[in-house]
Design goal:
The complex is a heterodimer of chains A (390) and B (162). Chain A is an alpha+beta fold. Chain A contains 16 helices and 8 strands. In chain A, strands 1-2-3 form a 3-stranded antiparallel sheet. Chain B contains 4 helices and 5 strands; from the N terminus they run H-E-H-E-E-H-E-E-H. The chains are: A alpha+beta (390), B alpha+beta (162).
Chain lengths: 390, 162
């Protein structure tokens, strides 16, 4: 037995320590990565804290609130006619669609109904807002994944829809056109013909995007099989709109609920897709623009003659009561729960916006995906920051 | 070499679009005319204003400042009593606060406020966005006539009091 010299002992300990160090280095800890608040692919300031193991996501938490503007509180210090100008700004791409559920709720409390002409024009503008919104999504989707061309196509053709809005309402982004009991003004002469011509363009844009983006093999490779949301998960997380329909749930408030609006006079299909992946969500939205253009074309042919405003008092006081109205907005189900105490303004207004629920599925769907898919999933879930934070 | 028919089809669309004319407007040199109803700037017809303060009260972000006083105007007919009228001292709209909602134009009961589609009034200083009544009166010359309505409308045709 040889005695271990001090030097040998030191070398032995050193070797063990080195091995331990190597082990520690190899066993990499999870890395925390902030996506946002400022990120080109987030449409605003959504922050997502992603924990990574190598290239794989183990946990993702969306952190909203960087653009909270307090609309629920603001509505309490405004009168009813002033609220529509605020709620335009919730989902700034689906501007007009935000006003409709609020106005319907107030009308429900007051027990009045807009005249048929106003209902038809409201529905037409609702669908135009949907087209303006989803057209931009289809272009932006390409940009977020790395295809630059569709953005310019989308902005080019959305401009025509916005010009239609501007020539009637006066505002491209904030129409503020809906009033309790009807509409602010009637259509100008020659608008219907113009609208039909634009609908042809919108359909042409859909064909272009279908060939340019949806048919592209690289695009499909990025999106097919990525971020699959099964039916039951989609329902339990409260998804709505195209995200839910892409998971195979046949659910559309335009068809299922009876509104004092003109959807019941139009013949349209509710598009669903069984896959539930990112590609299905984009595809469903594209088809929805087509259906929307179809609805507008049908409604343009039969706008009934008549007044555009029901009889309402000059100073609007909504009787005490509570009303909940939600409609199928471009992003999904959007609703207002209005509590009135008989004052000039609402006592309390709860706003249910679609994007907030749509991104709540992010922690579930992002478990185990790879980093490039994070952006693809976020893009396909399609949220508007103003709609999340309100 | 992988088969990429979709990519080639997409390139075909890009090529076709390349041959189409440009849609971009070179702004400071070429200008697009906004729609006549476009909400560009609010114009004031001072003679019609009666200092009723309805617009200032209904404004959602309180960006209209009005001051006025009562004066005696000569009677309408010979030998009548002098009338009491409201004179407008100050009518300012702060466009740095304005949301362009159009509620003030809508509530005005005496046709004193109008929308004009003019939009070129940006300034390097935020204080210059406060337009006083002289400036708002200048905008009145740019107010276009109301458009005729689409068939089937029962709305009454409005007129701009020139």
């Amino acid at each position: 037995m040889t005695a271990i010299t001090e030097r040998q002992q030191r070398a032995y300990i050193g070797a063990i320590a080195a091995e331990a160090r190597v082990n520690v280095e190899l066993e990499t800890e999870g890395m925390t990565l902030n996506i946002g608040p400022q990120h080109p692919a987030t449409h605003g300031t959504l922050r997502i804290v992603v924990k990574l193991d190598g290239e794989q996501v183990i946990d993702a938490q969306p952190i909203p609130g960087y653009m909270h503007r307090g609309y629920e509180k603001l509505t309490e210090v405004r009168t009813y006619p002033q609220v529509t100008t605020l709620v335009n700004r919730i989902d700034w791409l689906g501007h007009f669609a935000n006003e409709v559920p609020f106005i319907l709720g107030a009308e429900q409390l007051m027990g009045i109904e807009a005249p048929p002409r106003a209902q038809w024009i409201r529905t037409i503008f609702f669908e135009l807002a949907r087209q303006a919104n989803i057209t931009l999504f289809l272009g932006d989707l390409g940009a977020q994944i790395g295809a630059i061309t569709p953005v310019f196509y989308a902005f080019r053709d959305r401009e025509h829809v916005l010009n239609l809005m501007e020539s009637v309402t006066g505002g491209r982004f904030h129409p503020n056109f809906d009033r309790i009991g009807g509409l602010k003004d009637d259509l100008p002469k020659g608008w219907v013909e113009e609208c039909k011509a634009v609908m042809v363009r919108v359909k042409g844009f859909c064909d272009q995007i279908e060939d340019l983006l949806m048919g592209n093999e690289i695009f499909q490779a990025r999106l097919r099989g990525v971020g699959i949301i099964p039916k039951d998960i989609a329902l339990s997380y409260g998804l709505s709109g195209a995200n839910l329909r892409a998971s195979g749930v046949d659910w559309d408030l335009r068809r299922d609920r009876d509104y004092p609006l003109a959807w019941k006079h139009a013949d349209f299909n509710v598009i669903t897709h069984p896959d539930g992946d990112a590609f299905a969500r984009c595809w469903v939205r594209l088809q929805e623009v087509r259906e929307s253009a179809k609805i507008v074309e049908q409604l343009c042919d039969g706008i009934p003659a008549g007044p555009i405003m029901a009889k309402v008092p000059r100073i609007i006081k909504v009787p005490a009561g509570e009303a909940w109205v939600s409609t199928e907005n471009p992003l999904g189900e959007m609703g207002y729960y209005i509590v009135s105490k008989g004052d000039l303004g609402p006592f309390r207004c709860k706003i249910r916006s679609a994007s907030f629920n749509n991104i709540s599925v992010v922690p579930w769907v992002m478990k185990g995906v790879y980093v490039p898919d994070v952006i693809a999933i976020l893009a396909s879930l399609y949220f508007i920051l103003g709609d999340i934070d309100r | 070499m992988p088969q990429l028919p979709g990519v080639i089809k997409g390139l075909g669309i890009t090529f076709k679009t390349m041959l189409q004319p440009n849609v971009t407007v070179q702004y400071p040199h070429v200008k697009e005319a906004p729609a006549p109803r476009a909400r560009g700037v609010i114009a004031l017809k001072e003679e019609n204003c009666t200092v009723c303060m309805l617009c200032a009260r209904q404004c959602p972000d309180w960006c209209i400042y009005i001051e006025g006083h009562k004066t005696k105007a000569p009677p309408r007919r010979e030998g009548g009593k002098p009338r009491t009228v409201q004179a407008l001292d100050r009518f300012d709209i702060d466009y740095s606060l304005c949301m362009y909602c159009g509620i003030c134009v809508e509530v005005c009961p005496f046709d004193a406020l109008f929308w004009s589609p003019e939009y070129e009034y940006s300034t390097p200083r935020i204080g210059e966005l406060l337009h006083d009544k002289e400036k708002l009166g200048e905008w009145f010359e740019t107010v276009p006539d109301y458009q005729a309505y689409e068939a089937g409308s029962e709305a009454k045709q409005k007129k701009v009091p020139r």
